[in-house]
Fold this protein.
Amino acid sequence: MSDKYILDGHNPVGCDDVLAWGRWFESHRSERIVKQENIGDFRVSTVFLGLDHQYGDGPPLLFETMVFSRDGGGEEQERCSTWDQAVAMHDRLAQPYRDAKP
């Protein structure tokens, strides 16, 4: 099984050719962004990683949401397997910051 993936629309597809993967990854920067938003002093960013970050049993972890504070520190981080899960994960992690925004 491949540890490198590209997107076909919103669907991750394994890619065993490292050169093809690298070309796709470089030329599809905006397509790798699931969702990003600034909320007060925080930035919530959800992206397609292109590499499986599952270090054990289970489905490939290909998407990541991170919450950064204004000073650049990582506040929270989670990973998931699909685009739809990534959208839901982003909204779940962003909501407390939205609720706290003055």
Remarks:
- DSSP finds two helices and six strands in the chain.
- The helical segments are 18-27, 83-100.
- Residues 32-100 form one domain.
